[in-house]
Amino acid sequence: MLIIKNLHASIRDEKQKTKKILCGIDLHVKSGEVHAIMGPNGSGKSTLANILAGQKEYEVTQGEAWLDGKNLMDLEPESRAAAGLFLAFQYPVEIPGVNNMYFLKAAVNSVRKHRQLPPLDAMDFLTLIKNKMKEMEMDEKFLSRAVNEGFSGGEKKCNEILQMLMLEPKLAILDETDSGLDIDALQRVAKGVNSLRDFKRSIVVVTHYQRLLNYIVPDVVHVMMKGKIIKSGGKELALELEEKGYGWLGSTE
Amino acid sequence: MSAVFSTSSWLENIFDITSSVFQPPWLQAFRTQQFKKFRERGLPTMQEERWKYTPVSYLERTNFSLPIISNKWPKNCLEENLNSIILLVFNNGHFSEEMSDLHLLPPEVILSPLSAALQAHEHLVKPYLLQQLDGQRHPFMYLNSAFLNEGIFLQIPKNCVIPYPIHFLFLNINQSYFMASPRNIIVAHENSQVKIIEEHRAYQAENYFINVVTELYTNSNARVDYYKLQREHLTSTHIANINVHQKQNSCVNTFLVDFGSRLAREDLTINLYERRATCHMKGLYLLRHDDQHIDNHIYVDHAAENCTSSVLYKGILDKKSQAVFNSKVYAHVEAKKTHAQQTNHNLLLSSSAEVNTKPELEIYTDDVTCLHGATVGQVNAEALFYLRARGIEKEAALKLLAHAFITDVIEKIEDSAMKNYIQRQVSHYAGL
Hints:
The complex is a heterodimer of chains A (253) and B (432). With 253 residues, chain A is α/β, with parallel strands linked by helices.
């Protein structure tokens, strides 16, 4: 599904100084697997997620990333989405003036067009989205509001998962989707993610905390530090990190 | 500059032709006087502050003729109109009775083409026509007076509320290189109410020049909603003066939408003569083409106490287009407790687009609340990425964000039929 080979990336700061953020990431996520990426602040987890989605702010200096045989670095962000990649943003942006329902319909039909499926008409779309909103226990009034505008932190995250359910990606990357969620919202988000889980889809969960992984149980846990994956293991690794923190890993470098 | 224009033989020629048409002697004398004044004043030059970004000298080098009514009505030119309206259609500046529809007009209202009003109600029309417009400041008003032959005369009597919008539709059809000078006079008497939309469109007409003057007299407690939709051909020139005269407690709402023309200039002048008059001005200018130029100038004269004015204009500029926005609030000594607000926001979709924006205040009294602000920005890169990351293609995402930028202004239109009409026009013709 997702193959990342020796990926290096950097960013230019305001003084045009280049700062390396990713220093050779190797990652292989197979169909049906759930991988968790953990690590301290500034280790490059979110950068990796954003680079995979096509954020051009970062410069990929070396390496490659493949989704189902497609070289992601050759594709525009919208083509990556069409190819089945979905990033649930850490900070979903507010877009005043763009109606949520209109946006979702445009997104779904744009992706369907790429996948050579006929567009959903207004009725089919409405039925589908209402079902998905029920799953997420979201109020239908969100549809008539502007995208994320005035949404609480939890509402924004639920809206991300709603979009994911509508777009049915092959690979979903959740970038700290659990941050700022109360227990109820966390469970709703996890329920949404788990409903998508099947043998054809892969999920990458970027998180600081083990908590989310109680609900979305990973097959593999990676630890990222200073732009590299320094340790990988099973789900028990997350528990170990929760207990000991990251310090003991750093000292082994 | 005036010397050049006075030797423009095309202008002298067409003036001679219009002068030979039968008309009341007072009108002929007035037009001759206005033409003389125009020649003395000359076209504005870019050395003048109010015209420094707006080049109009090409007009004197262009051989414009007088407009001739076209017998080729474009198919479906009336299909996309508003429903249930009172409609006046003009064909290259000439009134078309067959295409107009006045059956919903209340009988006590006078609404007719200016030429007919001059015959039927000369005593009513004459004082308004003879008003001295400030042609020194804006010489195109002299030019309009010199050439005026047609337009609209609308008089709404006391206490009359016209429930349907009145649509003034100026169609430019199948003729190029002509100059039309419509003059519209709207008089709303005490306590009356009316909604008007003035629209300018083109069908197979190019390189023409529209020089329109609209005078709006709003008496005590009257309310006028004035909309304007300018979607002229992209080779044309559209110069408009809209002069609003407001008495006590009157309320005027203007909404100008400009997306046509190679060069368009809208001068909106609001005179708040008496206390508690209110004027809310909104506008959109949408420029999508190389070398397109749209200029909005607003002047609000607060001459009495307790008057309120607000300006909210938004512009979207693409390609190598250029826009000018200038609004000025002038509060006289008498204009105590003036409330004035001016806001202008611009979205640049291209790095070669240019906008010059300047809201100004000139205050000669105390106890006023005056706010002004202007911004020029680009599309929010984060929002663009967000939309694209959801599979929406770049072009479509830009369009969504551009539309989002202006949607709050359109949403403020109270009349829902008018709102839908303007929204449709903007979607269809400005691609937003």
